[in-house]
Amino acid sequence: MATGDVTTRQIGTELNVLHRSKSPYIVKFYGCFLAQTSVYYCMEYMDYGSLDRLYLGGVPEPVLSRIASAVVQGLWYMSKELNVMHRGTRQRRRPEYALRLVCVGH
C-alpha cells in the first residue's frame, strides 16, 4: 500500500472518531475542509491554550489532580464508548515535558 493511501486512511479514521466524540473530556470537532493537498480540522477553541504555556513553573497539585482525572475520563470514554484506543504517549527528552498524549486511532 502506498504511503499516501495509508495517510489518507489514517486521516479518515481520525475524522470518523472525532465526529463521533461527544464527551466533555474530548475537544469538540466541528468539521473539516480540504484546500489543495491539506486537510484542515475545525475544532473547539480552548482559550487557555496548552498546559506547557499556562504553567511554565509547574502545575499546582490541585490543578494536576483535575487534569489527570479529565485525561483518564477522556481515555475511558474513547475506549468504552468509541471502541478506540489512544495511539499512545510520547516522551520528550526535556524533563518538564516528560509525557504527552497523542492522536487517536483503531
Structure description:
The chain has 106 residues and is of the alpha+beta class. It has one domain (3-105): Transferase(Phosphotransferase) domain 1 (Transferase(Phosphotransferase), domain 1). 40% of the residues lie in helices and 20% in strands. The protein has helices at 3-20, 51-54, 61-80, and strands spanning 29-35, 38-43, 85-86, 89-90, 100-101, 104-105. The strands form 3 sheets. A two-stranded antiparallel sheet has the order 1-2. Strands 3-6 form a two-stranded antiparallel ribbon. β1 (29-35) and β2 form a beta hairpin. The longest helix is centred in the middle third of the chain and has 20 residues, at 61-80. It is globular, with a radius of gyration of 16 Å. The chain starts with a helix and ends with a strand.
CATH top level label: Mainly Alpha
Number of structurally distinct domains: 1
Strand content: 15-25%
CATH superfamily: Transferase(Phosphotransferase) domain 1
- N-to-C series of helices and strands: HEEHHEEEE
Overall geometry comes to: globular
Give the number of helices.
3
The profile of the biggest β sheet is: 2 strands, antiparallel
Helix content: 25-40%
Q: Strand order, main sheet: write it out.
A: 1-2
List key phrases describing it.
106 residues, Transferase(Phosphotransferase), domain 1, alpha+beta, 40% helix, globular, two-stranded antiparallel ribbon, 6 strands, 3 helices
